[in-house]
Amino acid sequence: MSLTFQLERVSCRFGDLAAVDDVSLEIENGERVALIGPSGSGKTTLLRTLNTIRGPDAGTVSVFGEKIDSFGAKQLRKMRSRIALIPQHLGLVPNMSVVQNVVAGRGGKRSTLRSLRDLIVPAKSDVREIHAILERVGIEEKLYNRIDQLSGGQKQRVAIARALFQKPEAILADEPVSAVDPARARDTVKLLTDLSLEKNFTLVVSLHNLELAREFFPRLIGLRGGRVTFDAAPDSIPESEMKALFELTAEELVKEV
After folding, report:
1. Is residue 20, in this structure, part of any structural domain at all?
2. How does pLDDT run across 38-50, given as a tens digit for each residue?
3. Domain range holding 109?
């Protein structure tokens, strides 16, 4: 069994708040996993920990079989180049073109000078490759459009294209469908899971939408208060546990930010 991610008793704190609390889990290469839970449950912090952006306050994180606790900045940068992160607000630059935003996806694998040159005048070979990726995600005609000229669904696809151009071994997506209507949300999640199967990369997506998680992911991890409440296939999770996951107490509602 080859693992993409392994967490052993990991905790991440912000002052007195345990955003991730004593979490242990393993995610195999090529797995498709949905993290589900209410706002403030620790999904974003867990994704940032998997991407090595946020180091743990306790416990051990291993990525691609390597413990990262002793990694320096250069080693972490190299590790992150193997993992694409699609942040909740997509992280696109509004006044730049689609091709410029997508080419930035490979910045972690290139020198600073090359990355700057790519943003000004992308290489013809990169443009051809990006056009093919945009064709796969269904927006090839938007190659030279500015981001602020696109719809919400098109922006999501640019963010996915940027992640694919990175040629990652894993993609992490933080609430990638929170700002679009249900039909576009389903199309986006289907695209991500289809691409994961096609290209055999590990996919971990945080979702509020329980139905999408059940439909497209063979493994669901429920988070609440920074702790894993269940970790199983959708059909084996009792409906009562699903319901309880999203029923916040009055105290939790006060804490939620």
Report:
1. yes
2. 888 899 999 999 9
3. 92-167
